[in-house]
Structures are given as C-alpha cells and as structure tokens.
Design a protein that fits this description.
Belongs to the peptidase S41A family. With about 425 residues, the protein is of the alpha+beta class. Helix content is about 25%, strand content about 25%. It starts with 6 loop residues before the first strand and ends with a helix.
Length: about 425
C-alpha cells in the first residue's frame, strides 16, 4: 500500500531537529479550538522559553510574513500575537496532541456524539456506532441541556466541548430533552476508545457503487481500495460507475487526500501547496493507474465538505475525471503543520501553506463549485468542529432506502446510467 502516513519533513533548527507534520483539518470536536480560545485559558501558564520557541516558529513558518516583536514583556503582548493568526493555528497541550494522533489514525477517546448548533440549541444529529452514547440510547434530535448538571444554555459548540473535556472523571452525565417528553432524560456515559469507520459502501443493481468517505485518516486509502474491491466482487464485474459522497466530510490529512485522488487519475496535477519556507512548496502529480479503469464518477459535495474533501473533489473535477453535484463547498484552502515544542509533549499547529487546485485556483474562503448545483436543505448542517459522522451503508439497501428522498443521489444515479 502506498504511504498513507502523515507527511513528515525534517526541519533544521539552529541547534536541533524538529519534525513537521502536514495535514489539513482536525475532525475532533475536542481539538478544533482556535488560538483565541487557548489564549484565554493557558497563555499565562507558558514559560518565557516556550513563548520564544512559539515566536520563532511563527517567524519561520507561518504562511504570512507578519511583523512580530522579538520578545514579550507580558502575557497580554503574547495574546495579541496569537490573535493575529488564523483560526486554524493553535497550541496543543499534551492531551490535545495525543488526541490529534488518535483522530488521524481513525480513533479517539470520547462519548461518540455528533452535534450541531441550531437556533441557540445544541442538537445531537448522530451517534457513532458502538460508542458509549449509542449503546446508552442517545438518539438523533435529542437536545443537549446540561453536561454534569451544568447548563449548556447560551453556550456554543466549542464551550460545550470544553465542558465535556474538563470533566475530572471518565464518566460524563448528559441531560437531554427528547421530542415532546415532559421530563428530561439523563445518560451517564463513560469515555472509551472509539474506532471510526472512515468509508462505507453500497451497490446498486445497475453496477453503480456508492462510496461515502466520512474523513481522511491514515487508513482511508486502504479502506477506499478495499471497499471498491468488495463492490466489484459483489457485482461480479467491473463497476459501471461510482458515486463518491463527500457531504459533511470535514477533511483530514493531506497525504490521504492526495493518495485517494491518485487512485482514480491516470495523470495530471492533484494539488499544489505554496508557503514561505522551502518545504511548504509541493506539487503533487498523479501516477499512471486508475482503479476503476475509466468508469464514470460522480462526486457529491455540500457546504460542509472541507479541506481534504475539497482537494479530492477539485482534483477529479479539474482533471475531467468526475462530475460534481451539490452545493458550494466550505472553502478551507490552507495546510496546517504540526511542530513539536520542547521535549515533544506539546506542539504548535500552524498554517504554513495555501493549496491550489489543478487549475491553479485557491479555494480558500470560496470553495469548490459543483458542475450541477443542487441545494439539499434537508441534509444536516453540521458544524465544522463536530465529531465526524459515521453513516452506515448496508449493501444495496442504501439505494432503495435513500435515493427517492435524496435528490443528489438520485441525480448521480441518473447521470451514471445515462453514460
């Protein structure tokens, strides 16, 4: 299997080496806190040496050349520096760093709930299969009222995530409101390690495969190839077409997005990255070999398709390999690098490059434009900082169950059967 690990580059510091790991977007609710939220709680705890190390890395590697002072006389000055950075740059403490590596390997320790903010309420939109929340009976559309008896009223998703994370014990009590039930429901959940299935699949009677990619982890390339092999085996022949569903996919590692794009391309540019330091400038090209042997592809995207999902969508679109259906994607066109600090127990997640589609366009703040625009308002509008969704497909039942209620999937099937 081609390299699916995070991109690792050696950086030469004045007196020591550091490892830089490039990726695109975290998918865990616990890790998507900006520098601004970090500054409120932890800046005062950092020592002068740590602050100077952070300053050095920002000077050397941040995507923009900021006018920064050389030292700090107060925490307020340091906070002002951090406030100049984009929201994807942040300091990671020991626990956040460990959780990051777990999430990029398709697992994390938590409760297994997926939430969105709707009309000032925190609504549960999904529970991860076999997670503590799913086993306990937490359901879609439950409204979260409290965490450990502390109300979540007037709090955003970041604050709620912090409340869950701040619990001193492995057990967390959630209070929810369900439908027209007159009484609140209490769930006492114990955090556990959850393995996230990044790819699910289904097969139609026409030999069209359906592939839902929910995130881009270190295992996603293997999972995509395995699911396509299973689909072809179940059909007994080469697939007549493939639907790749990237809706509500918040992204993942750069390496995974590039490798998966390469599965379907015979040649051409996949993506380029540009930054201030030498190793941030990369040009990724496709190698010969198409896993589908030219069978047509339709890609589904929406406003919550971000980062690595946008790289795959744009690579297939610009190389005329797929038709994109849906709505304008999120528009996260930057690459973050993970730079270990001190003895390596903490790290700086820093935006070090912008990426550009094969046509040379930056989609940052703009998104990828679909070929066929369909706005499906019935889809869940999931916030970018939620735990990744884990929609489960079950052989060809997915098609018969959803195509009549899913205009994007129905349109994709129509396009593929017409080819």
């Amino acid at each position: 299997m081609p390299n699916t690990q995070l991109q690792i580059q050696r950086l030469q510091y004045p007196a020591f080496n550091r490892i830089l790991i490039s990726y695109l977007l975290l998918v865990s609710v616990f890790l998507c806190l900006s520098f601004n939220s970090f500054a409120v709680t932890s800046v005062g705890d950092l020592k002068s040496q740590q602050k100077n190390e952070i300053l050095f890395n920002i000077h050397a590697y941040y995507v923009e050349d900021l006018a920064l002072q050389q030292s700090f006389e107060s925490s307020q000055q340091f906070e002002a520096l951090l406030a100049q950075l984009d929201p994807y740059s942040q300091y990671l403490d020991e626990h956040e760093l460990e959780a990051l590596f777990s999430s990029t390997n398709g697992r994390y320790t938590g409760l297994g709930i997926e939430v969105k903010q709707q009309q000032q309420k925190i609504v549960i939109v999904n529970t991860i299969k076999d997670s503590p929340a799913a086993i306990a009976g937490v359901q879609m559309n439950d409204v979260l009222l409290a965490v450990n008896q502390q109300t979540v009223a007037h709090k955003d998703i970041n604050q709620v995530a912090q409340m869950i994370k701040a619990s001193d014990t492995a057990t967390v009590t959630l209070t929810v409101e369900r439908g027209n039930s007159p009484q609140a429901i209490y769930f006492t959940l114990t955090r556990s390690e959850i393995n996230l299935e990044s790819v699910t699949s289904s097969l139609s009677e026409f030999g069209i495969g359906y592939l839902a990619i929910n995130s881009f982890t270190n295992h996603t390339l293997h999972d995509v190839a395995r699911q396509i092999t299973i689909l072809q085996s179940n059909y007994g022949a080469a697939l007549t077409g493939l639907v790749i569903d990237l809706r509500d996919n918040p992204g993942g590692t750069l390496q995974s997005a590039v490798a998966i794009s390469d599965l379907f391309l015979q040649s051409g540019t996949i993506v380029t990255t540009k930054g201030r330091f030498y190793d941030a400038n990369k040009h990724f090209r496709a190698k010969k070999g198409d896993i589908l042997n030219g069978a047509p592809i339709v890609v589904l995207i929406n406003e919550n398709s971000a980062s690595a999902a946008e790289i795959l969508a744009a690579a297939l679109k610009d190389n005329h390999r797929a038709t994109l259906i849906g709505s304008q994607s999120f528009g996260k066109g930057s690459v973050q690098s993970l730079i270990p600090l001190g003895n390596g127990n903490t790290a700086l997640k820093l935006t070090t490059a912008k990426y550009f589609t094969p046509s040379g366009q930056s989609i940052d703040g703009i998104g990828v434009t679909p070929d066929v625009a369909i706005n499906q308002s019935t889809l869940s509008q999931i916030d970018k900082v939620v735990i990744i969704k884990n929609k489960q497909g079950n052989d060809d039942q997915l098609w018969s169950r959803t195509d009549s209620a899913d205009p994007l999937l129905l349109k994709a099937q129509q396009l593929l059967t017409m080819k």
